[in-house]
Model the fold of this input.
Amino acid sequence: MKVVKFGGSSLADGPHFEKIIKIIMADSERQVVVTSAPGKRFANDDKVTDLLIEYANRVLQQQDVQSIQQQIWTRYQQIGTYFEVTNTKLNQLKQILIELPTKTYKNNSYLLAAFKAHGEILNAMLLTMVLQKLNINAHFASSGELGLVVSAAPQDAQILPVSYQNLTNYQLPKGRLIVPGFYGLTKQGQIATFSRGGSDITGAVLANGFHARVYENFTDVDAIYAANPAIVSNPRPIAKMTYRELRELSYAGFSVFHDEAILPAIAGQIPINVRNTNKPELAGTMIVPAKNFHADNVITGVATSDHFAALYLHRYLLNREVGFTLKLLHIFYKYHISYEHMPSGIDDLTVIFDKRQFTKGVREKMCQDIRLQLHPDSLEWIDDYAIIMVVGEGMRNKIGVMEKIIAPLAAQNIGVHMINQGASRISIMLGTKKKDAPAAVRQIYHNFFIAGD
Ligand code: ASP
Done:
């Protein structure tokens, strides 16, 4: 069997529902269908999830909610009436939407999570109604019915292992099972959502739990590309890649597939197929285990991301000082800061952070603590930092890759602050100034994919 997940833009309106129903019915293996909330229909449109967040905030601030309820409701109603689902049926959904503020929630964060999750819940219920209207055998199953148990982090939940046991014990009904993505229930029974874009995670968890042959993830792009099309014009689509290649590239900005969703697929060794709802005839990108994978190219992709900052510390004889790093990590721990990388030399150390976790105050206090406790000869905070990730299973046994990455950058006068090659040997990370990163990506892409080997 297959688990199929449709993203928000694939479920944004009636005509898209029509497309996805054709896709579901074209293959009898497509037994389990995971929905997102309706996404954008055009560039400036709202995602229903964002409207639900607005709805929750208005409730919390005790403001009038009628107009926002109506705005959300219209999105579902238009899809329902497109398929001539009766008003009596549709009103069941409206009732759920309207009654959301009257339910009890453990705290405001759980209230927000429950509102958000209803984007997918109502959409899965609606899809079930539409399929039934078309005389297709379909059943709705909530996360609760399937036993998807998650950690008690209302907006950023993690799936708990017991969920897989529950899925194994779940008897799949005949026909199609329609499941809302994006959330699970905590042990106390409260709704908690995954992080944004997290319906991908639900799909991967179900694919693992139901031992699917493949997890099909339908979205609005033809494939995953070797570089971001906003940076490189007409980048080549990737036909096949490994899980770890995707993880490394997602980390540095490839956003087609939620990076946390790769883990359940890896655990179950389920191939993931990213495909386009609007062009279902295309094969898309297959994401597979590394064993039996043959790399056709030296690199598979190059990505960049600029939400990083670096802390540079210099101190003579750092390499001989026992406990320096331990003290440094202790300071990060005190401020609840995680770090991404820590390349070091004999007299210096660079720590790279995801800078979204800092407020200015925290950053200054942390640097002050480092000065007082570690007495570095110099400390520099580099806010203008981007990382570039060059990824490819094909790099592993190839000599001269580094030169091929660096030479075109040098030729363009692009400075590289840091180079880090992981033990897996399938990725090389570079640190550059933010302004240089897009040009660096273009140079590297060009040198590997256009200039030839
Ligand atoms: N609807 C949620 C979001 O917009 C989850 C998802 O679409 O995957 O983040």
